[in-house]
Amino acid sequence: MTADPGARARPARPPRASGAARRSAWGRALRPWLLLAPALLVLAVLLFWPLVRVLLVSFQDYGLRQINTGENNWTGLDNYRDLLGDSFLWTRVLPNTVLFAFACVALTLVLGTLVALLLTRLGRTWRVICSTAIMSAWAMPAVTGTYVWIWIFDPLDGVVSGGLDGLGLIEPRETNWFTERWSFYAIATLNVVHHGFPFVAVTLYAALLTIPRELPEAALCDGAGPWQRFRLITVPAIRPAFTVVTLLSIIWDVKVFAQIYLMPGGAGANEDVLNLGVWSYIQSFSRNEYGTGSAIAVLLTLLLLAVTVVYVRTLAREGDEP
C-alpha cells in the first residue's frame, strides 16, 4: 500500500492555541492601552473636545446671542466660503503668516548653525559662558522678550531711535517703526529669531559632537577646504537633527501669536499686520464673530497638521534608518 503524494506535500497545521493562551495574548495586547488610558482620557477632554467644538462653531453664525441662549445657527460652509473669497486673506493675512514664518525659520537656522559651529571651537570656559548666555535668551518668556524689543524700537525713548537721532539720520517724532507693515514684521522677526535660535544651536551642537574627529582630519589631509568639510562631512552627519529643528521651527513660527498681538498695532488697530492666529482671535473676541474666528482657526490648524504629518513621517523614516 502506497501513501497519497498530495497528503505528504500538505503542510502540517499548527496546533490551536488553548483558551488560557488566547486570554494571555489578549491581556498582553490590552495592557499598554490600559496604561495609556488615563493620559488619552485627559487629552480627549482637554484637546480633542475643544477642537471638535471649534469645528462645529465654524459651521454656524455664532455670536453673543447663541452663547447666551445655547442655540445653534447652522450656516453650512458659508463662513469658509466668505473667508476663502475674502481678498484680505490672500493679500494680507496669509502672506504675513507664511512669509514671516519663512524668514524666521531661515534666519533661526542660519544663526543657530553658526552658533553651534562656534561652540565646537571654544574652550571649556568660554563654551560654558556662551551656552549660559544663549540659554538665558531661550528661557526668557515671549511676553517679556516682546516688551524688551518694543522698548528698543520705541519711537521716542528707544535705543535705536535715540542712536539714529544722535547721528541725525531720523526725526524721532516723525518715525514710528510699528505703523509700517515691513518694519513691524522686521522687529517681530528679530524678536522670534532671538527667542528661537538657542534651541537650534544647542540641538545642532549635540549633533556635531557625534561626528568622529577622524573624518574632518582625514578630509583636511586630503586637501579639503572649510566649506568642503562642512558640505561633505558636517551636513550629512547632522542632517537628521537639522530636519527635526527645521520642522519644529516651522510649526512654532506659523502659529506665533504673542509676539504679534503685544506689539503696538498688532491687536487689531493696524489690520495690515494681522496674521492667521491674531486674526482669528480678533474676529472671535473683539468682534464677537465666533463662527468666522473658528473657521480661521480651523484653516490654521489644517496648515499646522500638514507640517506635523511631514514631521512625524520624517521621524519615522529616521528611526527606520540603520
Topology:
Layout: H1 5-9, H2 19-57, H3 64-69, H4 78-84, H5 87-121, H6 124-139, H7 142-152, H8 159-166, H9 181-208, H10 214-221, H11 226-254, H12 258-261, H13 276-286, H14 290-320
Helix pairs in contact: 5-9, 5-11, 6-9, 7-9, 9-11, 10-11, 11-14, 13-14
Question: What's this entry about, in short?
Answer:
With 322 residues, the chain is an all-alpha fold.
Order of helices and strands: HHHHHHHHHHHHHH
Structural class: mainly alpha
Secondary structure tally, helices: 14
Number of strands: 0
Largest sheet: none
Low-confidence stretches: none
Strand content: under 5%
Q: What is the 3D shape?
A: flat
Task: Determine the N-to-C terminus distance.
Answer: 57 Å
Instruction: Tell me, rounded to a whole number, the average pLDDT.
Output: 86
Work out the helicity level: over 70%
- Specify Rg, calculated over alpha carbons: 28 Å
Structure description:
The protein has 14 helices and no strands. With 322 residues, the protein is mainly α. The termini are far apart. It has helices at residues 5-9, 19-57, 64-69, 78-84, 87-121, 124-139, 142-152, 159-166, 181-208, 214-221, 226-254, 258-261, 276-286, 290-320. Helices cover 74% and strands 0% of the residues.
Keywords summarizing the entry:
flat; 322 residues; mainly alpha
